[in-house]
Design goal:
The chain has 143 residues and is mainly β. It is built from 2 helices and 11 strands; from the N terminus they run E-E-E-E-H-E-E-E-E-E-E-H-E. It has a 9-stranded mixed β-sheet.
Amino acid sequence: MEFASIKEYRVLVESSDTEHSIEFEEIEGTEPVPYPIDWLNREGIHPARAKRIRMPDSSMAPLIPKGDVVLVNTADIAIQSGKIYAFGFMNDFLIKRIFKDRDGALILHSDNPAHEPRDEFMAYQSVFDHLCVIGRVHDEKPI
């Protein structure tokens, strides 16, 4: 069985009224984790576009507790309603479940019922001004 080693990164987000900047900084001293190539292929993840990123808060617990490391496919940025995404919002890095509304608005949803606010609504015109999708989070673990 073949494996691809995927490194852990820190996400740096900078936003202004007109631009978003997302940078990845490799975390020194962490070991890359091997993922089976067959599993990555089934999930549609190219190893060069995969990043391991630490969950910044408890908004997605218990599915993804604060501090857990998730695999993010940076090539998958087309939002599918109900899936989990890593994104820059203003100057913050967040991981949330995103739902699409019929009028193009988005709902940024926290799975954790104790997190406030649980749902944040973004009007269609605000989406492109304030949100920068980094990639889809794969909360499934390879078998």
